[in-house]
Write a structure and sequence with these properties.
Elements (H helix, E strand, L loop, with lengths): L1 H11 L5 H6 L10 H12 L2 H28 L10 H33 L3 H6 L4 H6 L1 H26 L5 E3 L2 E3 L5 H10 L1 H7 L16 H5 L3 E2 L2 E2 L20 H19 L8 H29 L2 H21 L6 H5 L2 H7 L29 H25 L3
């Protein structure tokens, strides 16, 4: 009776299978879980020297610069201009955040890709049975969780100061002009400030003018006192093939010429702003973040491929500061397609209109003046190049981690 009961109970209870434990063990999965990502995040965040450097470059430099300008303007407003404004925004974005954002992101990526080897932890991670691919992929969200917010904070500070501490008057060609005037509004303003417009605004009426109004231009230029003498020194206007007219202009003629100058300069005036628009700041912020993401992922792959941080960081600096500016500005015969494959050139081609040239010189509020100086490349090709770099360097870094001896 007892034997029968034991037999029945044994038959009704499931026998543990050796495969049950293996089915619940996800250590071999190539998809990183939250614990792996959190571990990699803490691993990077605890490197105090690296974190301080990231904060100083992405947040500290713009903050210190803008603070000095704010204090200087508050102490001596007649000697130092406003701390913010459109020009300051362009200078900080194209000259500081774009380049230094890439550098600090690349430094973080190179560190994340080589930290296990340099600290002797790679063998310990491998013996746990975790997928090497998952160990590599976990570093991507962990690193981006650090660099993306830092760049966003630095950029937000720049936007806030440039908007709230912007100039209250637009200075166009050295003259304080009301902002956001229509074409008719600018012409009416010019008629009431004829002397300032004639003496300071840039214009070129050419030669052999035939209209009645244009015939009075030489007389106006010689009748309006500018600086140490009459007229606008940068322009010579002739009537027919004879010598410039020296007659005295009437006040009505002076106003007419000022209106003509304002009409010719309106297209340039319309591109001047006191501070960047909301759409420009949003597009610029996304563009700066893209540059940082590219720098981090390429640096991560390179650091993993080389197995050390120092050489990888140096190579990333050479790419961003030396090779990219040269290859982006100078067309090399028979190597034009190779130049277009440089990721820095591709990202620069996605620059929002209205910013200055990111590699120095030119650009500004003239829309595409910055990208017009680059080696020509379509937006579609630029996007393909960026995707190829991101996927390619991720594949190289992961491949090297999977093949490396533990």
């Amino acid at each position: 009776m007892t034997t029968s009961t034991v037999t029945e109970n044994s038959a009704s209870e499931p026998v543990p299978s050796k495969t049950d434990g293996a089915s619940n063990d996800h250590r071999g999965s190539w998809v990183p879980n939250g614990a792996m990502i959190s571990s990699r995040f803490m691993e990077l965040r605890k490197r105090s020297g690296l974190m301080i450097a990231l904060i100083v470059v992405t947040i500290g430099i713009p903050t210190i610069f803008l603070t000095i300008r704010l204090v200087a303007h508050a102490v001596a407003p007649h000697s130092y201009g406003p701390a913010g404004g459109y020009d300051i925004f362009i200078a900080l974005v194209a000259g500081v955040l774009y380049v230094f954002g890439f550098i600090v992101a690349a430094t973080l990526g190179c560190t994340a890709g080589s930290i296990d080897l340099t600290e002797g932890m790679f063998r310990h991670l491998v013996v746990t049975g975790r997928s090497r691919l998952a160990l590599y992929l976990a570093r991507i969200p962990a690193g981006l969780a650090i660099i993306v917010p830092l760049v966003a904070v630095g950029f937000t500070i720049v936007c806030a100061v440039c908007v709230f501490a912007a100039p209250t008057q637009l200075k166009y060609d050295g003259v304080n002009v009301p902002v956001n005037l229509s074409r008719v509004g600018l012409e009416n303003w010019a008629a009431n400030h004829a002397n300032e417009v004639i003496c300071n605004f840039n214009f070129n009426f050419g030669v052999n003018q035939s209209s009645a109004k244009a015939s009075s231009i030489p007389a106006v230029l010689n009748s309006v006192p500018c600086g140490n003498g009459p007229g606008h020194g940068g322009v010579i206007v002739t009537k027919g093939s004879g010598s410039p007219t020296q007659s005295k202009a009437t006040p009505a003629q002076i106003r007419e010429v000022a209106v003509m100058i304002a009409r010719g300069d309106y297209s340039d005036y319309a591109l001047q702003f006191l501070y960047p628009s909301n759409s420009l700041m949003i597009r610029t912020g996304l563009w700066i973040e893209l540059e940082a993401i590219v720098g981090f992922i390429v640096g991560l792959g390179l650091g993993s491929l080389l197995g050390q941080r120092t050489v990888a960081v140096v190579l990333m600096l050479v790419l961003e500061i030396v090779l990219t500016p040269i290859l982006s500005r100078v067309s090399i015969p028979h190597l034009i397609n190779l130049q277009r494959s440089v990721v820095g050139l591709a990202v620069a081609h996605l620059e929002p209109s209205g910013l200055g040239f990111v590699f120095g010189g030119g650009g500004g509020p003239g829309g595409n003046n910055g990208t017009s100086q680059l080696v020509p490349e379509s937006r579609a090709a630029a996007i393909c190049v960026i995707i190829a770099w991101l996927v390619g360097w991720t594949a190289l870094g992961a491949w090297r981690m999977m093949k490396r001896d533990a």
